[in-house]
């Protein structure tokens, strides 16, 4: 069963990294959530089982990822298949996915615990690429896909044998998902796909794409479908890698699809339900994007404390200046407030609630706070902060994307306003 499988993975991971994991019983994992009252959850969100999972992942990160991040950043790409295979072998690519296809079948709080630990990677690009696989390209596949597409695309993605990408954004449709132009017209037992996708993470290394396309001429919210598209299909063309200001070790590209033929059986769920499925995926995507900013921000604050304590100006440590230690106190307070909001949204999501509003708030706050924390900390580093030799400058560049990717701050505000009942109603077109 799921819990015994998790225990087996824990033991195999401990052998891999010479770490001792305590065995976890099925009874412990099943009853942990039910024992926790809401008050207890606020006081201590992660159980011992969550923490064991995080410790195991942290050991993998420290031994297999962080030592090579600087090199990957210079090269402009990290070896996704190599990294994903190690994560998959250790069970981290299918924490919430069905056991039948190699996952652990745990609730979403374990995915949040994993994503928070991914934030300890010394760049934003690798955690983002992993999140594409776990929280963007596969949630709808796991929930609504047929047995066939789960065997073909979900199972190898969980094991790390395949790398995925998400094909939603287009040159004329970023946050405006309903405005995508890519079409998938049925011809016999196939879809013929034409269009283009933009800002595609993992593009050059992906084996398959979770593609959103218009499969009919109906209303914008009811004419779209999600389709699993092998990236080696004839008619798929990638442009050169997009030169970005941050997320340097992530391969990002524009993709053109010209008469790409894909079997109809590669459809995820029902035809015409793609927009709805994608909106549901956004809840997990935005929670993952938000929680992964916590560790980088904490790293910026802590490293700035250490630097300003050692760096002296006018005969005393910089940290002695009230404007610095007060500002760092404000920033840490804000980070803890964001953490509490993310944990609350996760608790409600695990309980089965629609957390679109709270997830949007989490992402909005994470994006804005990421800019605020990194900018303030960089200022206190002075000239060193303007170099590429310190992590604060890398996070300054990488975290800027959080306010843009996966829905801009302005879109998050519109969603929140809509759910508050304060968004103005546009006049109906005649």
TrEMBL record:
PROSITE patterns in the cross-refs: ACYL_COA_DH_2
Reactions catalysed, as given in the entry: (2S)-2-methylbutanoyl-CoA + oxidized [electron-transfer flavoprotein] + H(+) = (2E)-2-methylbut-2-enoyl-CoA + reduced [electron-transfer flavoprotein]
Gene3D superfamilies referenced in this protein's UniProt entry, alphabetically: Acyl-CoA dehydrogenase/oxidase, N-terminal domain (1.10.540.10), Butyryl-CoA Dehydrogenase, subunit A, domain 2 (2.40.110.10), Butyryl-CoA Dehydrogenase, subunit A, domain 3 (1.20.140.10)
Boundaries of every Acyl-CoA oxidase/dehydrogenase middle domain copy: 165-260
Domain Acyl-CoA dehydrogenase/oxidase C-terminal: 272-418
Pfam families according to UniProt: Acyl-CoA_dh_1 (PF00441), Acyl-CoA_dh_M (PF02770), Acyl-CoA_dh_N (PF02771)
Cofactor annotation: FAD
One GO cellular component term noted in the UniProt record for this chain: cytoplasm
Entry keywords, A to Z: Coiled coil, FAD, Flavoprotein, Oxidoreductase
Gene Ontology molecular-function annotations: acyl-CoA dehydrogenase activity; flavin adenine dinucleotide binding
Superkingdom classification of source: Eukaryota
Acyl-CoA dehydrogenase/oxidase N-terminal domain segment(s): 47-161
Biological process terms in GO annotation: fatty acid beta-oxidation using acyl-CoA dehydrogenase
Coiled-coil residues: 36-63
Stated family: Belongs to the acyl-CoA dehydrogenase family.
Protein name: Acyl-CoA dehydrogenase 6
């Amino acid at each position: 069963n799921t819990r015994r499988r998790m225990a087996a993975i824990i033991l195999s991971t401990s052998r891999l990294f010479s770490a001792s994991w305590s065995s976890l019983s099925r009874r412990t994992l099943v009853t942990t959530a039910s024992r926790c009252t809401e008050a207890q959850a606020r006081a201590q969100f992660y159980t011992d089982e969550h923490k064991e999972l995080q410790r195991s992942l942290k050991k993998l990160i420290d031994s297999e990822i962080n030592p090579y991040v600087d090199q990957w950043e210079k090269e402009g790409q990290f070896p996704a298949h190599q990294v994903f295979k190690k994560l998959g072998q250790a069970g981290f690519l299918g924490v919430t996915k069905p056991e039948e296809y190699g996952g652990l079948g745990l609730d979403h709080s374990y995915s949040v615990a994993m994503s928070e630990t991914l934030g300890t990677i010394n760049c934003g690009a690798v955690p983002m690429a992993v999140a594409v696989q776990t929280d963007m390209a596969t949630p709808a596949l796991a929930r609504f896909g047929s047995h066939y597409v789960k065997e073909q695309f979900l199972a190898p993605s969980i094991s790390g044998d395949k790398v995925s990408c998400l094909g939603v954004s287009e040159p004329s449709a970023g946050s405006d998902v309903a405005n995508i132009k890519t079409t998938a017209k049925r011809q016999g037992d196939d879809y013929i796909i034409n269009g283009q996708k933009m800002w595609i993470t993992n593009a050059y290394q992906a084996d398959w794409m979770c593609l959103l396309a218009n499969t009919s001429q109906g209303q914008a919210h009811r004419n779209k479908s999600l389709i699993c598209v092998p990236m080696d299909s004839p008619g798929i063309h990638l442009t050169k890698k997009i030169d970005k200001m941050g997320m340097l070790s992530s391969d990002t590209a524009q993709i053109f699809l010209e008469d790409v033929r894909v079997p109809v059986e590669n459809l995820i769920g029902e035809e015409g339900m793609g927009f709805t499925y994608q909106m549901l995926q956004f809840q997990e995507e935005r929670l993952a994007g938000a929680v992964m900013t916590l560790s980088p921000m904490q790293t910026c604050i802590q490293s700035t404390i250490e630097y300003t304590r050692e760096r002296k100006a006018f005969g005393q440590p910089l940290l002695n200046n009230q404007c610095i230690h007060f500002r760092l106190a404000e920033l840490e307070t804000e980070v803890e407030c964001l953490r509490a909001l993310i944990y609350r949204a996760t608790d409600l999501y695990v309980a089965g609630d629609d957390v679109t509003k709270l997830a949007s708030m989490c992402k909005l706050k994470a994006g804005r706070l990421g800019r605020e924390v990194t900018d303030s900390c960089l200022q206190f580093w002075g000239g060193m902060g303007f170099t590429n030799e310190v992590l604060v400058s890398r996070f300054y560049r990488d975290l800027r994307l959080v306010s843009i990717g996966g829905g801009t701050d302005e879109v998050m505000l519109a969603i929140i306003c809509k759910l508050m009942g304060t968004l103005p109603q546009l006049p109906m077109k005649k």
